[in-house]
Amino acid sequence: MYPLVRMVKEVWVARGGDPLPLTATHVSHHRCWPWDLDIWFELNNGRALTLYDLGRIPLAMRTGLVGALRRNRWGLTMAGASVRYRRRIRAFQRIEMRSRAVTWDARFIYLEQSMWTTAGDCAGHVLYRSAVTGRDGIVPPATVLAAMGQETAPPPVPDWIAAWIAAEDARPWPPMQDDAALARGGAA
Fold first, then answer.
1. What domain of life is recorded for the organism (predicted)?
2. How much is the average pLDDT of 27-42?
3. Using an 8 Å Cβ cutoff, are 102 and 125 in contact?
4. Spans of all domains in the chain
5. CA atoms of 142 and 63, how far apart (whole Å)
């Protein structure tokens, strides 16, 4: 089940927060509850991705993106993710989440988020490729920024993000076509 009550709390807190510049970091604090656990009694990997929403939506609010989305009847979607899990998060453990937009290109906004333990260890990190969508498909970030009153050039793309973008561009779509041919009895 989606953590609606937790999201309402984060939205409420973000409403009282100061506005953030486009690439500033939104910091939030969360707790791993028993219903967030997998069978090994640690934060479930899928649930971790859901919990990252609790940082992204308030970030979008504080930067003014949510206002532009509402005014223009646009949506926000995730178009890709690269995730690293490095430390276990156990039941009742408190975490700090950091969320920020890193850069953007002609189609996508690149966001990074991380979860930190109270001991100061990074437990996980995710890079997202996000898109604003409208009736005609993806809305270019330049158009979105203009609607936010933020007509600015994107920050330089860090090498590690550029390498991920290149890897995503080289990745076949649709995937597993050879596997589908083999399953039908054809040659790969």
1. Bacteria
2. 97
3. no
4. 4-183
5. 15
The pTM assigned to this predicted structure is: 0.91
User: Facing residues of 101 across strands?
Assistant: 111
What pLDDT does 44 receive? Answer: 97
SS3 165: helix
Tokens of 123: 């437990």
Rg (CA), the chain: 18
70-87: per-residue pLDDT in tens? 999 999 999 999 999 999
pLDDT at 85: 97
Model confidence at 187, pLDDT cuts 50, 70, 90, reads low
Whole-Å CA distances, 121 to 56, 95, 135, 176: 21, 10, 42, 37
Q: Which CATH architecture has domain 4-183?
A: Roll (3.10)
Residue-level pLDDT at 124 = 98
Name the H helices within 84-158.
141-147
Long-range contacts of 11-17 (CB under 8 A, 24+ apart): 11/57, 11/58, 11/61, 13/58, 14/57, 14/58, 14/61, 14/62, 15/61, 17/58, 17/62
